[in-house]
Design goal:
The structure holds two protein chains of two kinds. Chain A has helices at about 1-30, 45-50, 55-85, 95-100, 100-105, 110-125, 125-150, 155-165, 170-180, 180-195, 200-205, 215-225, 230-250. By secondary structure, chain A is mainly α. The longest helix of chain A is centred in the first third of the chain and has 34 residues, at about 55-85. Chain A is globular. The relative contact order of chain A is 0.15. In chain B, strand 1 (about 35-40) and strand 2 (about 40) form a beta hairpin. In chain B, helix 7 (about 145-170) runs antiparallel to helix 11 and helix 10 packs antiparallel against helix 13. The longest helix of chain B is centred in the N-terminal third of the chain and has 33 residues, at about 55-85. Chain B starts with 5 loop residues before the first helix and ends with a helix. Classes of the chains: A mainly alpha, B mainly alpha. Chains A and B meet through helix 1, helix 3, helix 4, helix 5 and helix 6 of A and helix 1, helix 3, helix 4, helix 5 and helix 7 of B.
């Protein structure tokens, strides 16, 4: 009896967690003019419509560019940091780790407001550049965590062997370490991409003329419009995430890093 | 090869360190320090005047209340889900685990917007009620504390489940069997064996859920609007409507302090676990 009850509750919990996505998908396939559920007939009209809205188009391109560029930058500065923390006997290693993982601790809205108020406005920094910088440091902690975990499995004596056999330090890193942490780097890339692409609080205050990321654009749009286009866009983004997630899970077992 | 060269290590870490300091530490430091200045002198006056406003007090207590409620509910549901998941066969378990992780990968806007479709005036809930003949006028469900609560719960429950699953996996295998052999019923086994042994997982998950709820923006913004303000939506309102950076900095101090305390707790839990194993 108790077993059956807890099984039922468990099923309800899973419905609670996943059901909303099914509903948003169906709402996005609505044929009607306004957002209702159950939808008034099914069609792809709103799915097609979101591709014709200029503001969605430009902000999608900005978000995409931002996600790729910031994650690549985060790997470029994060991998050396992870390597340094894994290999070198650094005094203050714990402090370094704390500073670099601060973006996980400080709420995004605070980061965004401070950056906008005291850097962008005061020093006339382009908003796009501030977005790039903030999204980059947001991804660095994931690089540190995931690549750090991969580095722990690469034994230091393999590198030392390469070094003793005549490789340079950089050569030893490129030929011995890098191939072994490729999976970790890919996992960090995917996590970073998703973090940046879905980012709201950090980007919220950072909008300028013609510069606004897709999630911020969506938030603005839903305040004034009640057609199913946000549902359609949400459904498309959710499907995109599911796709990325399935590929990543197949290739890397990404849920291990969450 | 590495022992003699801490300088190289610092050099390698410096780009990340510098980026983080310039983009985050310094500006956030300036913002937070603004909360402690009264007419150019150091003081707590801004906090006093912030909390003197009944609206701000309301928002502060509502945020804590909702976050606590979400944390407690997610703990109860989390245990039920985690116990069910741990009892599954390995193949099924990894499938269900990835289904629990999946929502975390999806845009929080998409996740929250789904609740507009469900709770809106002509949404699933109201239409079902009317279809069943249970009501003629649609209920106003959006822009209520209930809507924000549901949205936050759905957003953060996966973290609690994952944290409890990993705690239950580390439970010595025979303890529950031993408890039932010794005559404990299921409830006693849970309260006296499972709960104490998974306490760290509960605290870890609870800390993530609580901090996440206190510092949530998207959910209260979409489901609460300007009627049900929480700390972050109040902060955005203060900046965008009245350009009141001082109030915003006071809220920022509260948010950062909550996060720091929670984070410190988590870190201590992690190190004590490592030392014991």
């Amino acid at each position: 009896m108790i077993n059956r009850l807890s099984q039922t509750i468990f099923m309800l919990i899973m419905v609670f967690l996943l059901g909303p996505f099914v509903i948003v998908l169906l709402a996005g396939l609505s044929a009607g003019e306004t957002l209702t559920f159950p939808p008034q007939g099914l069609s792809l009209r709103w799915m097609r419509h979101v591709f014709t809205v200029e503001a969605f188009h430009t902000s999608f391109m900005l978000s995409l560019w931002l996600a790729v560029a910031s994650t690549v930058l985060a790997l470029l500065i994060g991998v050396p940091a992870a390597y340094a923390l894994a290999r070198y006997p650094l005094p203050f290693a714990e402090s370094i780790r704390r500073i670099v993982t601060a973006p996980l601790v400080v709420p995004g809205l605070v980061i965004g407001l401070a950056l906008m108020q005291y850097v962008v406005v005061r020093f006339d920094v382009p908003v796009a550049l501030a977005l790039l910088g903030s999204h980059t440091i947001l991804t660095v902690p994931y690089v540190l965590r995931v690549v750090g975990a991969s580095l722990a499995h690469v034994r230091a004596d393999m590198e030392e062997a390469a070094y003793l056999l005549g490789a340079s330090r950089l050569g030893a890193f490129m030929k011995v370490v890098l191939p072994n942490i490729r999976a970790g780097m890919l996992a960090a890339f995917i996590l970073g991409f998703i973090t940046s692409f879905n980012q709201v609080p950090v980007s919220l205050f950072m909008t300028g003329p013609g510069v606004s990321t897709l999630p911020i654009q969506m938030l603005g749009y839903m305040e004034y419009t009640f057609d199913p286009s946000i549902a359609a866009l949400s459904a498309l983004l959710a499907l995109l995430s599911v796709l990325i997630m399935m590929v990543a899970e197949r290739a890397l077992g990404l849920s291990r890093f969450m | 090869m590495f022992q003699d060269r801490p300088l190289t290590g610092y050099l390698l870490a410096s780009p990340a360190l510098l980026a983080c300091a310039l983009i985050l530490i310094v500006p956030v430091g300036i913002l937070l320090s603004a909360a402690f200045q009264v007419d150019g002198r150091v003081g707590l006056g801004q906090f006093v005047s912030f909390f003197a406003d009944p609206l701000n007090q309301d928002v502060f207590w509502r945020t804590l209340r909702l976050a606590a409620l979400v944390t407690i509910t997610s703990a109860v549901l989390g245990y039920i889900a985690a116990l069910a998941i741990v009892g599954m066969s390995p193949g099924k378990r990894s499938l269900v685990t990835s289904l629990v992780v999946l929502p975390l990968m999806i845009s929080p806007i998409a996740r929250t917007y789904a609740w507009i479709v469900i709770l809106g005036r002509s949404g699933l809930f109201n239409n079902t009620l009317q279809g069943l003949g249970l009501g003629d006028t649609p209920l106003r469900l959006l822009f209520t504390e209930g809507a924000v609560f549901i949205g936050l719960l759905q957003l953060f429950l996966p973290y609690m489940i994952l944290s409890l699953v990993s705690a239950l996996e580390n439970l010595p295998r025979d303890v529950t069997a031993a408890a039932s052999v010794l005559g404990a019923n299921r409830w006693q086994t849970f309260v006296r064996v499972i709960l104490p042994l998974t306490r760290e997982g509960l605290v870890a998950g609870g800390t993530i859920v609580f901090t996440g709820s206190v510092t949530a923006y998207i959910t209260p913004a979409i489901l609460g609007g300007s009627k049900i303000l929480m700390l972050e939506t109040l902060m955005v309102q203060r900046v965008n409507v009245t350009n009141d950076i001082v109030s915003a900095s006071v809220i920022a101090v509260i948010l950062v302090a909550t996060s720091l305390v929670a984070n410190d707790l988590l870190r201590r839990l992690a190190t004590s676990r490592r030392e014991r194993s």
